[in-house]
Give the backbone structure.
Amino acid sequence: MALAAVALVGCKKEATTDPDTPTDKPDWYYTGGKLGTTENLSSMTFRQPTPATEEAGLGTLFAQGDQIAEKPFVTNETGRQHGLGPVYVRSSCQHCHPNYSHGTSVPAGKYNAKDVGNGTLLVVINPADQSYVKWLAGMPQLFGADPFPAPLDPDQITVEWKTATDEHGNKFADGEAYELRYPEVHMPNTAVYVYNQGYRDPDGLLESEGYEVKLENTIGVYGSGLLDAIPDEDIIAQYEKEANDKLPNGEPRLKNGLNPAFWNGGFQTSGYYKNDPQWGPKRFTYALTRGPIMDAAGANAIWNITNVTRSNRKYHYLDLAGTIYAEYASKDPEVQQAFGTEAEIYNYLTSKELPAEMTDEEFTQVMVWHRGLAVPAARNVTDEKVLKGKELFTQIGCDYCHRPTWTTGSDEVRDPNHFPVTAQMPRYPNQKIWPYTDMVQHKLCMENDIRTGWCRTTPLWGRGLHRKATGDAYEARMHDTRARNVIEAIMWHGYSNQSDAYWPTQQFYKLNKEDRDAIVAFINAI
């Protein structure tokens, strides 16, 4: 019913375009270029196909992919959406990306993973080195398909919101106050299935509850194809530029430099999920673990979030060690009673040659949909307040990390998985796009920060329409939804004097209220 409620939002009569759109549109109105922008600004804005998708005759494939992304997978062995489990994170794309936006705000109290829109996933780490624990998956599963128990019991996990105070006492010079909050997650070791079955962590993290649990919210899936079309050499040139830039006062612009996994005196294609250098710089996820799009977050998630196998992934996504859950589930008398012998259970869970549950044709449909999602046009592009905010955004230096524009290249779709489907993908050659990201990682040094501290600059395009698309009470900005609005998001950027964004945040702090409001209006308009 909840899924139906999300899907039916678009059935209400509502304006689909900006009534103030001028006839002579500026270039930044077309956030995704002429081939990647939708002018449908209804609550269904993030679900629209790009003009390039429709012009290429891919509308049917896009719609078929949209159906796969929208509907929950099930555990039965027949039908279009079969194959869920044996353990899984969520049962559909819609659960984490309501109307294909980013996840909704996380409320205090019980972490309810069953809620449609709760796209904020758990990250369980060893605080000593920020590495994922071995006894859970990098994105821990919270559900099990009968007869398999869930690796984590979400009913035992709670979220507490705490307040932080910056050097300004959370108040601008003119007296306007703002709040800064951050989440703390509480998860007892009894929430961990293998611990209850007798597993003991060699590092002692489970026994002492010495692990840390963080939150990472999903981002909107729209516009990913356009980011995929940015030339590798242009992203590498951005790294080179930022490696040497100075502030107006002569200090290094980036207090923390560049992540040495990607820049060490020069660009290197290292880091997580290392691919052949021909695949160039990573583009996707906060940690820059994925790229190109055919092997990026969406292509990965349609497998590991649901555990639906396909021809190039005939195995299950389990814990990081790959065998801990399998070992203890195979010895569980209740699982044995329903499934078979210990050996049969273990071999099933760890097999690398399982039947493909998603066909190559269905994967093609999903990727046409994923690469074919448009970005909404900018709003209020002639509004004086928005135009003033656009100018100030550049003046105070926000545009350094949130680089406004890129130009796509010839857009030759690349696929490290070597599926024979790239010829059917939408393409965006030679488009000037406005994502407002430099495609590089930075450190903001916040309270209870993201894992490792390194985080890709999140694109700002379309973010101002999140509440309209999802009905969320807040804007759910930042990696863990800590910022409920633009002001909170900006001031978190300068919470620490070691933040890479400290200087522009202080410039924002010095502005009068009229100018601050103008920047907020601009950010919400793009």
